[in-house]
Amino acid sequence: MSIPSQPPSSMPMLTPLPITPLISMPTPSIPNTDVKDIARFIYSNLYSNNKENQKKAIKTFYDVNAVFEDPILIVESHDKIINQFLLLSSLLSIIPNIQSITDSEIAGNHHLVCIDSIIKFQSPLLFPCLRLPCLRLIFGKNNKCSEITMRILTRLEFNEQQKIVRHEDIWSLKDLVESLPIIGFLYADVARKFNAIVTGCAVIAAKEVAHALEEWNV
Hints:
CATH class of the largest domain: Alpha Beta
Number of strands: 6
Radius of gyration: 31 Å
Helix content: 25-40%
Oligomer: single chain
Structural class: alpha+beta
Strand order of the largest sheet: 2-1-6-5-4-3
Number of domains: 2
Distance between the termini: 146 Å
């Protein structure tokens, strides 16, 4: 009995199923044209706890002679700016919440992008001894010993090559002080009210002295 070398024509030929390639997870793309999208991309990487993204954002989008400043310091160059953000992200957890972004053209064909945001700085190790219920009244405006919330206005100046030449963070010292445990309570609920009372008494005393001088001259 001979075995046929080929299957009968009535039997369907089996074909291998196509192999579906693995779908890669989406990665954030870097915007190319809109300066506001670029600013948002940079901001979300800078104010985070991903140190590699912070370094890449500064080295990619900042001019080599870029300047960073805020109310307490001013630094220049990639390395010094990187050090500022690495230090901050090493000490605290950063949670930014962008409220608005505006863009305007300024002299020299530069663009000025302003980002209004509210940023929470959190640390479980910040003032751990103040977690006692009896001390919650002096935890400051946020009523949390491990969290500081600040409103920050960031000004990013882009040159013609869409490189940042100046980065300025503007924030209120009042907001910072009021967010601090103990100090915030003393400042907001004690010192400012006491100063208001003293000022009011001084105004009343000045009026009485002026009135007495007028009567004396008469």
